[in-house]
Specification:
One of its GO terms (molecular function) is methyltransferase activity. By secondary structure, the chain is α+β, with helices and mostly antiparallel strands. Helix content is 43%, strand content 13%. α3 packs across α4 and α13 runs antiparallel to α16.
C-alpha cells in the first residue's frame, strides 16, 4: 500500500522513496494523496506523487468501495464546487445513505469527502495528461472530467499551486509519450504486478470479436455515447503499463482510464489481503509463487455477466444441448448477431458487445441457454438487476432461473467484490474476507496444469 509522507514545516507531501529527509517529528502520513491535499499539503516537485498508483485501501468498507466505483464512473463529474453538496447527496441516495453518513464514512476511512476525492482524481489525471500528451489545455480539462475551464483552472491552482499552462511548461522531456496514433498514457502501479498472469486470464476469457490478446498486448472495442473506440493495454515499465486509446473524442477520458485500470486490477492494491492470506497453508505458497497477482475486473459488467453465465451453463448438461455451440462459439454468434459492427480494426476485433436490450429481444430457437440469457438480459434492461458489487448482487442474479450461485459469485468477483467465492473449497471459510484474491490464485495455479 502506498503511504504518502507530508512535512508540516514545508507543506509538501511525498511518495515513498523521495530523496527528501525531513525530521520524523515533522512528518504526517496519509494513505491517499487526496487526503494530504485536503489537509492543505501540495505535491512534491521532485518525486511527483501524482504519478504513482493512488489505490483505495483494501480494508475500506465495501460500501465505500462501491461509492468510489460510482465516482470513477462519473457520479460527481461536471458539477461546480458550489454544488458539491448536491452531488454528494445524489451519490448517497444511490447507495441508500444520507449524505452526512456518506461523508462521515469517507472521512473515517479515506480522510477526504467524496467531492475532495473526485476532485483529486480529476486533477491528478489532468496533470498526467499535461505531462504525457500534447492535448490542448481545453482538451485536458474536459478529458479529466471538469465541467468548465474555470473549474479546471481553480482546481489545478488549489492542488498544484500553479496554472495548467505553467504545469505544461514545467514537464520533463522524458514525460512526453510519442504516439503514432491514439492517446498514450501510463497506467501506474505499485510493484509487484504480474502482467503475464493478468494477460493469460484475459486471453482465456476473451469474448470473440470484442477482445483479443496478441503477444503481450490486450485489445478491446469500446463505445462512448454510441461511438466506437479501441483500447490497447501492454507492458510499459517496472511501475506502469501503457494504455493506448483510440477514441472518437477526448471528453471524459478520465472514465476510460479509470475503467481500463479496473479491468486489469490496478484500482485495488491488495496489500492487506495478501499479508493475511500469506500465512494460509493453501494460499500462502501460491502467493509466494505469484506475489504480483491482482484481481481482474471488467470493462462492461453486462458482457461479463453474459460470459460467466454462458461458460457456467456449458458445464451443465441439462441446460446445454448437443445442438448448442460451445461457449466461445455461442458468444461469437451473440456478438455477430446483436452487437454493433466496428469495421477496420483488425486483431480479430469486429463488434461492440450487444446491449441488454438487444439480447433481451433475441430469438434463440428454444435453447435453454438462450432462454436464460434472454431472462437475464430482460432483468438487467428493466433495472431489476444492478450490476454493481454489493450485498444484493448475488441474490438478484441467482433469482434468474438458470443462473447458478457459482456464476453469480464469479460475476461479483469481476465486478469488485472482495469476498466472492466461485470455487468450492474445503478451506474457503478460512480466507474470508479475501476469498476473491484467494480464488484468483487458485485459478492461476489451475491454469499452469492445463
Amino acid at each position: 500500500m502506498t503511504t504518502y509522507s507530508a512535512v508540516r514545516t514545508t507543506g509538501i507531501y511525498c511518495r515513498p522513496g523521495c530523496g527528501a529527509k525531513p525530521l520524523m517529528e515533522n512528518v504526517r502520513t496519509f494513505e491517499l494523496a487526496a487526503a494530504a491535499e485536503a489537509a492543505g499539503y501540495r505535491a512534491c516537485l521532485r518525486c511527483r506523487p501524482y504519478r504513482v498508483a493512488g489505490t483505495v485501501p483494501d480494508e475500506a468498507p465495501e460500501l465505500v468501495c462501491r461509492a468510489v466505483q460510482l465516482i470513477i464512473g462519473g457520479a460527481l463529474d461536471g458539477a461546480p464546487t458550489a454544488n458539491a453538496a448536491a452531488g454528494e447527496a445524489g451519490l448517497a441516495a444511490r447507495l441508500g445513505l444520507s449524505a452526512r453518513h456518506l461523508r462521515r464514512m469517507f472521512h473515517d476511512h479515506l480522510g477526504v469527502t467524496p467531492d475532495q476525492f473526485a476532485r483529486s482524481r480529476r486533477a491528478h489525471l489532468a496533470r498526467r495528461l499535461l505531462d504525457d500528451t500534447d492535448l490542448t489545455i481545453a482538451d485536458v480539462a474536459f478529458a479529466s472530467g471538469f465541467g468548465s475551464l474555470r473549474q479546471f483552472n481553480r482546481a489545478m491552482r488549489e492542488v498544484f499551486r500553479s496554472t495548467p499552462r505553467e504545469l505544461r511548461d514545467r514537464r520533463r522531456r522524458t514525460d512526453r509519450l510519442v504516439a503514432d496514433g491514439g492517446l498514450v498514457l501510463r497506467m501506474p502501479f505499485t510493484p509487484p504486478y504480474d502482467w503475464p498472469a493478468m494477460l493469460a486470464f484475459l486471453a482465456e476469457h476473451a469474448i470473440p470479436g470484442v477482445e483479443s490478446v496478441e503477444g503481450d498486448v490486450y485489445r478491446r472495442t469500446i463505445a462512448l455515447d454510441g461511438e466506437p473506440g479501441l483500447l490497447e493495454i501492454g507492458p510499459g515499465g517496472a511501475d506502469h503499463l501503457l494504455l493506448r486509446a483510440h477514441l472518437p473524442y477526448w471528453e471524459g477520458v478520465i472514465h476510460v482510464v479509470e475503467r481500463a485500470a479496473r479491468l486489469v486490477g490496478l484500482d485495488v492494491e491488495p496489500a492487506l489481503a495478501t499479508a493475511q492470506l500469506a500465512v494460509d497453508p493453501v494460499i500462502g505458497p501460491l502467493i509466494q509463487q505469484r506475489p504480483g497477482l491482482r484481481i481482474p475486473g471488467t470493462w462492461g459488467p453486462f458482457e461479463t455477466a453474459v460470459q460467466a453465465v454462458v461458460e457456467d451453463l456449458a458445464t451443465t448438461p441439462a441446460t446445454w444441448s448437443t445442438s448448442t455451440p460451445e461457449p466461445r462459439a455461442l458468444l461469437a454468434e451473440l456478438v455477430a448477431t446483436h452487437g454493433t459492427p466496428v469495421p477496420g480494426l483488425g486483431h480479430g476485433l469486429t463488434h461492440g458487445f450487444p446491449s441488454a436490450e438487444a439480447l433481451a429481444a433475441g430469438q434463440y430457437a428454444g435453447s435453454v441457454a438462450g432462454d436464460v440469457l434472454v431472462q437475464l438480459s430482460k432483468e438487467v434492461a428493466a433495472g431489476h438487476i444492478t450490476l454493481l458489487a454489493g450485498d444484493q448482487l448475488v441474490t438478484s442474479l441467482t433469482a434468474v432461473p438458470g443462473v447458478s450461485r457459482r456464476a453469480a459469485q464469479y460475476i461479483a468477483l469481476r465486478l469488485g467484490a472482495r469476498d466472492a467465492a466461485p470455487i468450492d473449497h474445503e478451506a474457503s471459510e478460512n480466507w474470508r474476507p479475501w476469498r476473491s484474491l484467494a480464488t484468483v490464485h487458485l485459478l492461476a495455479e489451475a491454469r499452469t496444469h492445463t
